[in-house]
Amino acid sequence: MVPTITIKEDLCIKCGMCIQDCPCGLYNQETEGSVPEVHNLAICISCGHCSAICPPGAIIHSGFPQDYLHQINEKNQPSNEEVLELIRARRSIRVFRDKPVERQQIERIIDAARLAPTGHNMQATQYIVIENKKILNEMAQATTNQMSWTVNMVRNPLIKPLVVMIAGKQYDSIVESVPFMEKMIADFKNGKDNVLFNAPVVILFHADEKTIFGDISVQLAVQNATLMTHSLGLGGFYSGLVLMACQRDKTLKQMIGLPRNHKAYGCLVIGYPKYEFKKWIERNKPEVSWL
Ligand SMILES: Cc1cc2nc3c(=O)[nH]c(=O)nc-3n(C[C@H](O)[C@H](O)[C@H](O)COP(=O)(O)O)c2cc1C
Predict the structure, then answer these.
(1) Atom 12, ligand 1: residue with shortest CA distance
(2) Quick count: other Cβ atoms within 10 Å of Cβ 2?
(3) For ligand 1, is residue 252 a contact (CB within 6 Å)?
(4) Rounded Cα–Cα distance for residues 212 and 125 (Å)
(5) What's the pLDDT tens digit per position in 80-127?
(6) What per-residue confidence (pLDDT) applies to 22?
(7) How buried is residue 199: exposed, middle or buried, by Cβ count under 10 Å (0-12/13-18/19+)?
(8) Per-domain residue ranges of the chain
(9) How sure is the predictor about 163, in pLDDT bands with cuts at 50, 70 and 90?
């Protein structure tokens, strides 16, 4: 829907910030020092930059009524050292306490996720929160079934050319992960859940497949959610394996109510950590090209 934008002339201080900041270039000034004019509203992506950056609040965008604009609390901004410390301290958690996660905490995590940037400001990411133990077990089972299918495909010499064709450049990494998957499958059969690690919650991030950059936008939302999870004293991990099952297994897709034409792009497994990391570790030195 095309929004409307009104500039309150009596409030405008003609600072020109809206003109410089609008990513769509909607604002211009007829003459220097005049109140800006708005053109080409049809291409507005309703990011809200104009309303948020205007110092006196002279820009009234139909997508952002007064209660959509909040004061940024400068005193609450973490220092760069605090941001880095949070990033360092976050680790994948796979050992959980036998304790459910409160709805309020999950809502806080999703609140952080929804504030992540999205391609073309589409904000199309949706969430499925799975707390039901039976469904969680089904998810873990379906994930193991998918792994068995992959292992059988890779281990069958007769269909190797087909597998190579389907897997493309990832073929070698898939082959490398086969022993790992075989162990997971065997463990699962013996009653050890190393797919979900008996976690009480899974959050599945999904979007309409037609959404531009929908998959990438989800990954950013997941990272926001991950950091919020940690800061709430919760923990968890990204499950690529469960995600794969949610993308491939039709029965599972139905069971979790994934809408038609939607695709699961991200999967976070969450719970209360049993143990706490006291040390952070170095990662590989980054390979960087400076031009
Ligand atoms: C795309 C992606 C997929 C992952 N899939 C799984 C998974 O299926 N199971 C799992 O236990 N961990 C999974 N992880 C977690 C990684 O193993 C973990 O992030 C990595 O070993 C680094 O450890 P850290 O998260 O503690 O820093 C995944 C992580 C990413 C980013």
Answers:
(1) 239
(2) 9
(3) no
(4) 11
(5) 999 999 999 999 999 999 999 999 999 999 999 999 999 999 999 999
(6) 97
(7) buried
(8) 5-68, 85-276
(9) confident
230 CA from centroid of ligand 1 (Å): 15
pLDDT band at 164 (very low <50, low <70, confident <90, very high): confident
The topology under which CATH files domain 85-276 is NADH Oxidase (3.40.109)
For 232-259, write each residue's pLDDT tens digit.
999 999 999 999 999 999 999 999 999 9
Taking residue 71's Cβ as centre, other Cβ atoms within 10 Å add up to: 5
Instruction: Considering only the C-alpha atoms of the chain, give the largest distance between any 2 of them, rounded to a whole number of Å.
Output: 77
Residue 240 Cβ < 6 Å to ligand 1: yes
Nearest C-alpha neighbor of 60 from the set 9, 17, 20: 9
Structure tokens at 97: 């306490």
User: Which atom of ligand 1 is least distant from the CA of 197?
Assistant: 11
Q: Which residues on adjacent β-strands are paired with residue 271?
A: 235
Any alpha helices (H) in the chain, and if so which ranges? 17-21, 49-53, 80-89, 103-114, 133-155, 160-167, 171-189, 214-231, 240-248, 250-255
Report how far residue 175's alpha carbon sits from residue 282's, in angstroms, rounded to the nearest whole number: 28
Domain 5-68 has CATH 3.30.70.20: yes
Which residues, including other chains, have CB under 8 Å from residue 33's CB and lie 6 or more apart? 14
Paired tokens of 91: 């680790």
Pocket test for ligand 1, best of 144, 183, 188, 238 (most atoms within 8 A of CB): 238
Kindly state the tokens that stand for 266.
């991200």
Could you identify the atom of ligand 1 that is nearest to the CA of residue 93?
26
Q: Which protein residue has the closest C-alpha to ligand 1 atom 13?
A: 239
**What residue's CA is closest to ligand 1, atom 9?**
239
Classify each residue of 243-255 as buried b or exposed e, where b means 16 or more C-beta atoms within 10 Å of its C-beta.
Answer: bbbbbbbeebbeb
**CA nearest ligand 1 atom 29, residue:** 238
- 146 token code pair: 């998918």
